[in-house]
Amino acid sequence: LIPSHSPYLLIGGGTASFAAARSIRARDPGAKVLIVTDEPDLPYMRPPLSKELWFSDDPSVTETLRFKQWNGKERSIYFQPPSFYINPEDLESAENGGVAVLLSKKVVHMDVRGNKVKLDDGTEISYDKCLIATGGVPRNLQVIERAGEEVMSRTTLFRKIEDFKSLDKVSRNVKSVTIIGGGFLGSELACALATESGLEVIQMFPERGNMGKVLPEYLSNWTTEKVKRGLCPCFHLTLRRKYIVKTDHIVAAVGLEPNVDLAKSGGLEVDSDFGGYRVNAELQARSNIWVAGDAACFYDIRLGRRRVEHHDHAVVSGRLAGENMTGASKPYWHQSMFWSDLGPDVGYEAIGIVDSSLPTVGVFAKATAKDTPKAATEESGTGIRSESETEDTATSPVASTAPAPVVGHKDDYGKGVIFYLRDKVVVGIILWNVFNRMPVARKIIKDGEEHADLNEVAKLFNIHED
């Protein structure tokens, strides 16, 4: 039995949708919230699928989907156990409200003026307020699509729990895997798969080095060398010459196409530059309709029009949409962050617009044993880095008085801060092997001032202290 009406209807069952549900219930404790997802799983977090789950010692990890956080505590990738939710058929009569999830159902049509949607089985559900958090689908390469069924059957497009399970199985049963893509997902999966003994891992990408679209070229090259040397026994091929690569399986990690299937029936604008549903600074698309997560092209009152594909953004934007669905009228300004570890020794956290086509200024220092992702998270006792992070903004930070030591090796980028500039103002910051300083970075971006000397600003992060 599917409820015919839900005061709060959330389309999509990912991180943004769950964050919105939690936020709605916090502000309206008796709220009745219905999540409709085309996946067979209750809401779960995606980052561990390409990160922690691969490093688990538990042979049954593909069943348990539990992972050790960096602080040693274990948790499930599901945000909440099944007991947290109520049955969809009980939603309308639930005295104290609750959150219900309709699994394996797809919303195929929106009637915005009538405040209702239609599912793929023909059922209609009316709503008072609606959130679209439909995420996106992984892009494929035309050359793979054109190559026919046999090649497609040996290709993984990585996004969901089932993709993690099937790639895990493949990695145990083949001799070589080729990953196409040098971004976050491709680089993380290359490092993860390289832990499988006896598996040859080849990573290829059109940029000159790992994370070439994000990191300045010198740092991208250094990272590529580091990854080649010890992090993972991968071959890296930049696609500037013709190679013939023999491989048993392909993973295409070449980006995400935001899911905007409801744009036509809902009369919703799709942004022609960034993709995704175009929403205002309060994440609203039309009356009673909000959008959050990967599918939202929003107006950031600090940094302008954007679309962001990261876990922490899904948390932040879902939470804000939920607040605004209950009448908060708050604009988007709280910068989400994202992080990536390329193994236990190199990790970074980033905030704002980090795009290697922008001018950058990097300030580096020599790293010590404490300056690794593992050491930092053990010390701070936090688990999933982004979630512990999303609340803080620093008050005026105080610069470290320690003198800047001379970095012995000119190309040893042990730890440091990279500033990304637009019109002389810092719009993005990467903390390279510098941890638990994100509130400082958030304040610098929020203040939006021109800085005469970024070396001085870098001192706020205490990178020169041992």
From TrEMBL:
Residues 321-447 form the Mitochondrial apoptosis-inducing factor C-terminal domain. The keyword Zinc does not apply. The lineage of its organism: Eukaryota, Metazoa, Chordata, Craniata, Vertebrata. Pfam families: AIF_C (PF14721), Pyr_redox_2 (PF07992). GO terms for cellular component: mitochondrial inner membrane; mitochondrial intermembrane space; nucleus; perinuclear region of cytoplasm. One of its GO terms (biological process) is mitochondrial respiratory chain complex assembly. Residues 393-403 have a biased composition (Low complexity). Keywords: Acetylation, Apoptosis, Cytoplasm, DNA-binding, FAD, Flavoprotein, Isopeptide bond, Membrane, Mitochondrion, Mitochondrion inner membrane, NAD, Nucleus, Oxidoreductase, Phosphoprotein, Transit peptide, Ubl conjugation. Belongs to the FAD-dependent oxidoreductase family. This is Apoptosis-inducing factor 1, mitochondrial. Residues 9-317 form the FAD/NAD(P)-binding domain. It comes from Salarias fasciatus. It catalyses: A + NADH + H(+) = AH2 + NAD(+). InterPro entries: AIF_C, FAD-oxidoreductase/Apoptosis, FAD/NAD-bd_sf, FAD/NAD-binding_dom, FAD/NAD-linked_Rdtase_dimer_sf. It is found in: Cytoplasm, Perinuclear region; Mitochondrion inner membrane; Mitochondrion intermembrane space; Nucleus. The gene is aifm1.
